[in-house]
């Protein structure tokens, strides 16, 4: 396998972030992942991602950073 030339950091590997990270891996990018729930980021290691201990470590020297933040439970959107 050829080493990836670009590394993307994915911060937030929940419902949206995990599939994004997997798609980046399939496209040949190096991917470092971080999540507040360590197990969610660690689960992506089997797919080839590099789990990071902190968001800063994931983002360090990355070509790009994707930040995926969920909506806090209980938050409601006001509809006009």
How would you describe this protein?
- This protein has three helices and four strands, in the order βαβαβαβ.
- Helix 2 links the parallel strand 2 and strand 3.
- The chain is globular, with a radius of gyration of 14 Å.
- The chain is α/β, with parallel strands linked by helices and 80 residues long.
- Strands 3-2-1-4 form a four-stranded parallel sheet.
- The termini are far apart.
Please give a handful of descriptors for the protein shown.
single chain; 80 residues; alpha/beta; Rossmann fold; 4-stranded parallel β-sheet; 3 helices
Question: What is this structure's SSE topology?
Answer:
Blueprint: E1 7-11, H1 17-26, E2 30-34, H2 38-42, E3 50-51, H3 55-59, E4 64-67
Parallel strand pairs: 1-2, 1-4, 2-3
Q: Per the principal axes of the C-alpha atoms, what is the gross shape?
A: globular
* Amount of beta strand: 15-25%
Please give the CATH architecture: 3-Layer(aba) Sandwich
End-to-end separation in angstroms reads 53 Å
What is the CATH topology classification name? Answer: Rossmann fold
What's the CATH H-level homologous superfamily?
Answer: NAD(P)-binding Rossmann-like Domain
Q: Using the coordinates above, name the CATH class.
A: Alpha Beta
Number of helices: 3
Structural class: alpha/beta
């Amino acid at each position: 396998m050829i080493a990836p030339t670009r590394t993307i950091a994915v911060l937030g590997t929940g419902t949206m972030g995990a599939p994004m990270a997997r798609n980046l891996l399939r496209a040949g990018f190096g991917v470092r992942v971080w999540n507040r729930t360590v197990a969610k980021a660690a689960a992506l290691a089997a797919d080839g991602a590099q789990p990071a201990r902190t968001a800063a470590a994931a983002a360090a020297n990355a070509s790009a950073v994707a930040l995926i933040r969920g909506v806090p439970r209980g938050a409601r959107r006001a509809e006009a």
